[in-house]
Amino acid sequence: MSTTLLQELQGELRRLYIAGSDLAAEDFRLKRLEPKLAQLGERAPVFKKLAEGVAALTGPSDPEARAVRLQDVSLLLNSVLSTQGATAAEAQVVTEREKDNELPELTTMHSYRQLTEVQNALSESGGGRYEIVTSAYEQGLFRDLRLFPFAMKALSDSYSEIADFAARNILPSYGRSIVPYLLYEMDIQGGREEERRLQVVRELGVDPEDARSLERLVHAAEEGADKVRSAAIACLGPHPAYEARLLEWSHDKKKAVREGAYRALAVRNSEAARERLYDTFKGKDALLAAEAIGYAPSAEMIDMLLPLFEELLRKEDAGEVDKKAKEKQWSALEPFLTAFEYARHPELERLYLDLAGNQSAYPALGRLHGGDCIRILRHAATYLESTDTDEALDVLKRLEEQDPIYLPYAFHASKRRLTPAELYDQYVGSGWGRLKTVVSKKSQRAQKALLDTLRDELYAYQGYVRIRLPQDQIEAEWDPRWLDWLIERDDLQLVSALAAPGNSRLLPYIERTMEKANHHDAHYIFTSLDACDADEDTKYELLMKWMERKDWKRTYSMYEEESERLLRVPDHLASESADRLEALIKDVRYDSLKEKLEEIIHALRRRAASV
Fold first, then answer.
1. How far is the C-alpha of 112 from the C-alpha of 87, rounded, in Å?
2. Helix ranges restricted to H, 386-432
């Protein structure tokens, strides 16, 4: 089959992706291709279907339907081009699949200018692309139909973080309607891209009525490369008809195939599936079974495993506890921690309460390396931290007294159950409150644990960047005495997090800190300054002193926050600001930075002149 006509059609469709699907109406270029496709359609049904799609695309239609039709024609065309000519039967399968599985919730509401940066980021290589893609996702740009092909393409991106983000966040957000597209464009002998594709399918699930998608999935499970087989098998758990096959695959000689079967059986959660996983826990594949159960923990499965776990923990052993024995003990216990990681079960709560509060009753803990014992107790603490009861909190406090490593769990649980004043009194208060008990033994570790815990509580992550909580939330949820305590500890990041009006020590602290702060502390300095009670002229003076103390010979850029603040100085100080900045130009080494400063100076002079 010649692809010349198909490639010409692809070029026209790409043009419409850029210009917008509305321009397809009565488009003469497309209408010129339609009869050629129809003529070839007499010999190959796929050309006939393409001709019908082009006719529908150029004919009368509402904007949303036209956008969906553009997507349908493009996906069918790409399917044909990817194989350089499909058989009639294959073409018919793709056609019917697309007819039944459109993407009706997607729109074309965004301008091309908004989309082009994302399209370029997913079509090229180079730095900074990850931030562009994640930001576009947060803004909802991927709900635009024109970005859907780029989201699919991202699964094979050379930068694995982008490909993984697409599989983990972007594609699942489209919903189950994309599953047929994922499966019918899959290369079952492929590699990591196909695993990601099936990862999305597993999360979204295959519609039980979608027989063709299930057939394609089973074909990949039977004939694909080992890792593709494993990922495809894992998708079959929700479908009872394949249970016998799953049990058979769980005995396969290939580890990857068994792993996929265990994952599917954990989701299947039938009596036979649970029995098979239970038996596996006693053999060489215990960790594989544990990972499968951890992904989909069921109450029935936890009921079966908990007695085994408790028996191992309570078991007495009079033998010599050497390094090999400790490693063996850990190998026996580790699968249970993996299986229970995300489980919630009343009997598991009972066991963790007793384990953390009465460790001497569980001899197995004493036969472990210190680090492995801590890992088990941390699992218990993590579970109890989210158990909102007085009993759980009491056990966490006892763990905290035992070792500061458990302080974060007790702190998080205490914060949910105490008022802001009570929380401060418990951990600091007069005489250092609860922290005093710990400090008497391990003061540096205890204080570091508390400061790190405060950092986790006070900052949320946005990508890789820590974002301060909203000011009203800080003032409502945190006792103001924390700010004084942090100023005494000279922790700029945390002072910035809790900075609020009304503290007479805050401004002097900022002034002192500016003298020793480095270039990267700018955000924390100015966030603190925003929150203090200083007047505008004082804040302006501190801003200018910050700029004047920079080593401009070594500085190659300015933070956007700094330039924005300079442009917002009070009107009556605009001229003075321009003069003071101009005096710095002579020391600037890098041309781009010099140009930036000159732009700011010109803007300030224009404002001063207009005033």
1. 36
2. 390-402, 407-417, 420-427
Rounded to the nearest angstrom, the gap between the alpha carbon of residue 345 and the centroid of all alpha carbons in its chain is: 27
Find the length of the chain.
611
Whole-number Å distance between alpha carbons of 496 and 487: 10
The Cα angle at residue 384 between residues 436 and 424, in degrees rounded to 5: 30
Residue 286 vs residues 262, 334, 362, 365: alpha-carbon distances, Å:
10, 9, 22, 20
Cα Rg, the chain, nearest whole Å? 31
CA dihedral 17, 22, 26, 31 (to 10 degrees): 20
* Distance separating alpha carbons of residues 47 and 38, to the nearest angstrom: 6
pLDDT tens digits along 419-435: 999 999 999 875 445 55
Are 599 and 605 in contact by the 8 Å Cβ rule? The answer is no
User: Taking the model in full, what pTM does it have?
Assistant: 0.74
Contact 54, 37 (CB under 8 A): yes
Between helix 88-100 and helix 45-58 the angle, nearest 10°, is 30
What single DSSP character describes residue 125? -
Contacts of 382 (CB under 8 A, 6+ apart): 409
Render pLDDT for 506-519 as a digit per residue (tens, 0 to 9): 999 999 999 888 88
Contact partners, residue 238, CB within 8 Å, separation at least 6:
205, 206, 208, 267, 268
